[in-house]
Design goal:
Blueprint lengths: L5 E4 L8 E6 L5 E5 L12 H4 L15 E2 L2 E2 L2 H19 L4 E5 L5 H15 L4 E3 L2 H15 L9 H5 L2 E5 L3 H4 L1 H14 L2 E5 L5 H4 L3 E3 L6 H14 L5 H7 E2 L1 H11 L3 H8 L3 H13 L3 E5 L1 H4 L4 H14 L9 E4 L6 H7 L5 E3 L2 E2 L3 H11 L12 H9 L5 E5 L3 H4 L3 H10 L2 E6 L11 E4 L8 E4 L4 E5 L12 H14 L8 H11 L20 H5 L4 E2 L25 E2 L18 E6 L15 H4 L6 E4 L1 H6 L7 E5 L4 E8 L7 E5 L32 E7 L4
Parallel strand pairs: 6-7, 6-16, 8-9, 8-12, 9-10, 11-22, 12-13, 16-17, 17-18, 23-27, 24-26
Antiparallel strand pairs: 1-2, 2-3, 4-5, 4-18, 14-15, 19-20, 20-21, 23-28, 24-27, 25-26, 25-28
Helix pairs in contact: 2-21, 3-16, 3-21, 3-22, 4-15, 9-11, 9-12, 9-13, 9-15, 12-13, 18-20
The protein binds iron/sulfur cluster.
Keywords: 4Fe-4S, Iron, Iron-sulfur, Metal-binding, Molybdenum, Nitrate assimilation, Oxidoreductase
Protein name: Molybdopterin-dependent oxidoreductase
GO molecular function, one term: metal ion binding
């Protein structure tokens, strides 16, 4: 009799597709999309369908290591606890830090956050999701008072108009894109793509606005001004549910006085701009979907608010087929937001600016020394590791030596840091710097929950035994906490117990609203946790109950009103010049995930793009003296990388694109990390990964 299929969730993007996995008697794993999962209804993309080919033990590190030699858990954990405790005793709690990952499950995230903020007493825990969606978090808080994604995926199908901004949805959120294309076939949904590149997503749209990098605020200020000029505002909604409209409109009108001015500033034709404005004005059921092209910018938060302003001005928010919609890159970026996995958040959607909330969490955790101020955000955390302020750093399930901007400096910081712990599954560029390596369990071996971009909580379930001496991340964190003397607070029998505690901490009241509320799950029996069906929050636990939020006229702000934010066009932080005449954009390929530690092992996923290639326009290739297929060196103010030239008219002259994925495991200095700028958005701390000026030289091969 064949083994039963196990219902689990894909570990890649923020769509959060349901997967049915089956292990054959020979140990091979087959997967298919779960037809009952509300996110994907049976579909999987190229990465998801190849999941069964990623579960082998090739490359796994299955025992702890100290200084590169194999060690037992007792010795390795003892050393981690001792070095962290000694460092804290000598230099204070802010001398240590955790850098975690949107790949972690909510239960892993919860205990890591609790250990750092509750018991170590520092908020120096930040996540690679800082690089992914921190500007959306900051923009939501500025507009709504809380980090809330109002919509649900069904809105992609209910909308008459879907505006995709800085989002190559076809490759980065493929199943959501397929849902959108199906809706378009059935209902004629209009699709506008706003992206400097002509991506696979732009290939299918009704209107592609290839704006110049960094001009999103100007475009959406132009839209707000157009709505104001044309009398297309929802004046009742603005008067009753919002504040700050007159100033936002007046700044938008000054910034973007006419469609012609917007077109000139954005590098577009006036007719394209007018068509977009008219489409948005005409289609009440419209959603504006934004992703890394908006977030990864020194003005990412302003871009988010420029978008939200247009939805507030028309009252199109939290209603079927309407609203601003941030889609997250990682499988559990949203779960990290729930537990407070960002250094500026406390826990359960509570913040450090609320002393009562800090006291509440301290009492709940029985943590007398709880952190009372935000900690270091990703870029600053690695700066601090490099200059000696951070003396002990624990990296969990992420590869900052490749993925962080200014990656060469990050590698130097990891090398300089007194004590580096890495818990991961395989060797990466980052594990090379680890004084202690702790082997973690991976997808298919561990249990817990993830939350996708529409606030849907789904289970990841194990269907394979944990190999060698690997352990689940939550257990590794709890083991270290116990050895540091915090055992009573970290004595969990399993992830179900952690989840119940996490749920019980939710439901705080923010100016009369209880939005992140999953207290109904705090009493789940173990068997109910095991069989838990995907459920939206709030009201999680009733199965997929697609609850929209913020659809009324009350927001979790002091006056109960949503806030317009007056934002001005600022442009990119570091424009191109004669020395570096090309603006480099970076992002994902269809078939790869992050630094390829999993997808890079699957030949069929490597087949489409077997080596790193920089896409440039033919004009720039000619100006740089290179031809299609040449090996070139890219130099930015921060570092260099090598890649093949791929000439493409998808790039406008003066722009180039390099995939983010390649790591030293495959080719030295081939990814975008060493080139990228560490300059960050002032509100979100998110770095400008979407633009850095470069020059390109043909490499002579000796
Ligand atoms: Fe996995 Fe995302 Fe593909 Fe769904 S769309 S199968 S979550 S990578």
């Amino acid at each position: 009799m064949p083994a039963a299929e196990v219902r689990t969730t894909c570990p890649y993007c923020g769509v959060g597709c349901g997967v049915l996995a089956r292990v054959a008697t020979d140990g091979s794993v087959t997967v298919r999309g779960n037809p009952d999962h509300p996110a994907n209804r049976g579909r999987l993309c190229s990465k998801g369908t190849a999941l069964g080919e990623t579960t082998g033990l090739d490359g796994r590190v299955l025992a702890p290591e100290i200084g590169g030699r194999e060690a037992g858990w007792d010795e390795a954990l003892g050393l981690v606890a001792q070095r962290f405790s000694e460092t804290i005793a000598r230099h204070g709690p802010d001398s240590v830090a955790f850098y975690v990952s949107g790949q972690l499950l909510t239960e892993d995230y919860y205990v890591a956050n609790k250990l750092m903020k509750g018991f170590i007493g520092s908020a120096n825990i930040d996540t690679n999701s800082r690089l992914c969606m921190a500007s959306s978090v900051a923009g939501h808080k500025r507009a709504f008072g809380e980090d809330i994604v109002p919509g649900v995926y069904e809105d992609f199908e209910l909308a008459e108009l879907v505006v995709l901004v800085g989002s190559n949805t076809a490759w980065c959120h493929p199943i959501l894109y397929q849902r959108l294309l199906s809706a378009r076939q059935e209902r004629g949904t209009r699709i506008v793509v706003i992206d400097p590149r002509r991506t696979a997503t732009a290939d299918e749209c009704d209107l592609h606005l290839a704006i110049d990098p960094g001009t999103d605020v100007l475009l959406f200020n132009g839209l707000l001004a157009h709505l104001g000029r044309s009398g297309l505002l929802d004046r009742d909604y603005i008067a009753e549910a919002t504040s700050g409209f007159p100033e936002a409109l007046s700044v938008a009108m000054a910034d973007a006085p006419s469609p012609e001015a917007v077109a000139a500033g954005c590098g577009l034709a006036p007719a394209e701009v007018r068509l977009f404005f008219e489409l948005f004005a005409a289609k009440e059921r419209s959603i504006t979907v934004y992703s890394q092209g908006v977030n990864q910018s020194t003005h990412g938060t302003d871009k988010v608010n420029a978008i939200i302003n247009c939805h507030l001005a028309t009252g199109r928010i939290g209603r079927p087929g309407m609203g601003p919609f941030s889609v997250t890159g990682q499988p559990n970026a949203m779960g990290g937001r729930e537990v407070g996995g960002l250094a500026n958040q406390l826990a359960a959607h509570m913040n450090f600016d609320d002393q009562a909330a800090i006291d509440r969490v301290g009492r709940f955790w029985r943590a007398p020394d709880i952190a009372r101020a935000p900690g270091l955000q990703a870029v600053d955390m690695f700066r601090a590791a490099g200059d000696g302020r951070i003396k002990a750093l624990w990296v969990m399930g992420t590869n900052p030596a490749v993925s962080m901007p200014d990656a060469t400096r990050v590698r130097a910081a990891l090398k300089a840091c007194d004590f580096v712990v890495v818990s991961d599954v395989v060797r990466t560029d980052t594990t090379r710097f680890a004084h202690v390596f702790l082997p973690a369990a991976t997808w298919g071996e561990k249990d817990g929950t993830v939350t996708n971009s529409e606030r849907l909580i789904s289970r990841q379930r194990s269907f394979l035994p944990i190999p060698g001496e690997a352990r689940p991340d939550w257990r590794i964190v709890c083991d270290v906490a116990r050895l540091m003397g915090f055992g009573a607070a970290f004595d969990y029998a399993g992830p179900d117990v952690i989840f119940r505690e996490h749920a019980a901490l939710s439901g705080f009241e923010n100016y009369g609203e209880r939005l992140f509320d999953i207290r109904g799950l705090a009493g789940l029996e173990k068997s109910e946790y095991e069989s838990f069906a995907p459920s939206h929050w709030p009201a999680a636990g009733k199965g997929s109950d697609a609850t929209r939020l913020l659809g009324g006229r009350r927001f979790p702000t002091p006056d109960g009103r949503a806030r317009f934010v007056a934002v001005r066009q600022e442009g990119v932080a570091h424009p191109t010049d004669a020395q570096r005449p090309i603006g480099l954009n970076s992002g994902r390929l269809r078939d790869q995930w992050h630094t390829m530690t999993r997808t890079g092992r699957v030949p069929r996923l490597m087949a489409n793009a077997p080596e790193p290639a920089v896409e440039i326009n033919a004009l720039d290739a000619a100006r740089s003296g290179c031809a299609d297929g040449d090996l070139v060196r890219l130099d930015s103010p921060h570092g260099f990388a090598r890649a093949r030239v791929k000439i493409s008219d998808a790039q406008k002259p003066g722009q180039a694109f390099l995939p983010m994925h390649w790591s030293g495991h495959y080719a030295a200095n081939a990814g975008a990390g060493p080139l990228a700028s560490p300059l960050c958005d002032a509100f979100s701390g998110q770095p400008e990964l979407k633009h850095v000026p470069i020059r390109i030289h043909r490499e002579e091969i000796a």
